[in-house]
């Protein structure tokens, strides 16, 4: 699982940089529908299993090699709460307790963003 987008509806879809190695700024912005902010994964997570969004469910396991790209203005723009991204960010101690993620996010290895 190199890189994937987690939508506010809980859908997870794999994505890849157009050049095969790292995402351009435009690709990052398109993934989150706006300006980006990088949220580092500070602690290994998972596997966390999410079943409520998909009949078969899915598991996500992350290490500190990953980062989460979020919309820096997601809350200001009143984007929807992203349950999966919030669980991942909370479990990895990447956000403060009680904080949350709004909007779609891109999760990828940090080497994929330059």
Chain-averaged pLDDT:
89
Strand order of the largest sheet: 2-1-7-6-3
Question: For the report, how would you describe the main beta sheet?
Answer: 5 strands, antiparallel
Q: What structural class should be given to the helix and strand makeup?
A: alpha+beta
**Rg (CA only):** 13 Å
Instruction: Sum up the overall morphology in one term.
Output: globular
Oligomer: single chain
Ranges where pLDDT stays below 50 over 5 or more residues in a row are none
Output the number of helix runs: 2
N- to C-terminal separation? 19 Å
How would the blueprint of this fold be written?
Blueprint: E1 3-6, E2 12-14, H1 25-32, E3 36-40, E4 45-50, E5 58-62, E6 66-71, H2 83-91, E7 105-109
Antiparallel strand pairs: 1-2, 1-7, 3-6, 4-5, 6-7
How would you characterize the overall build of this protein?
- The two termini are 19 Å apart.
- This protein is of the alpha+beta class.
- The strands form 2 sheets. The chain has a 5-stranded antiparallel beta sheet with strand order 2-1-7-6-3.
- The chain is built from 2 helices and 7 strands; from the N terminus they run E-E-H-E-E-E-E-H-E.
- The model has no long low-confidence stretch (mean pLDDT 89).
- A hairpin with a 5-residue loop joins strand 1 (3-6) and strand 2 (12-14).
